[in-house]
Sequence to fold (133 residues):
Amino acid sequence: MNTRSPPAEAASNLRRRRGEAAEDLAVGYLNARGIPVLARNVRCKGGEIDIVCLDGPCLAMIEVRQRENAHFGGALASVTPAKQRKIIRTARHLMQTSAEYRGRLMRFDVIGVAGLPEGAHRISWVKDAFRSR
Fold:
């Protein structure tokens, strides 16, 4: 049973579509730079990784964040410690369960998409944005 009101559901759908559009922009950005994307939306019980790509010898686990403006720190500042823990947990699960990825160097990146995906936007890629402990 869906307990959300129609306006709340519409807002959730809009956020999901914008998030997907931001991820598509990020994949296009990576592809234009010759960075092969290996997987998208990798999920486990503990969390999700938006994009897994190979940057040289390193697996980059990328969180994509989209914001219409830079209020409250913008897209890059929105990756909270709790979100980082979920991404790290998912990366560990991926490394343990996938022979393809096991034993590779790994880092955690953030790609921020500022502006509306339907209009002008700016993409910022922060490599090694945070580390696992």
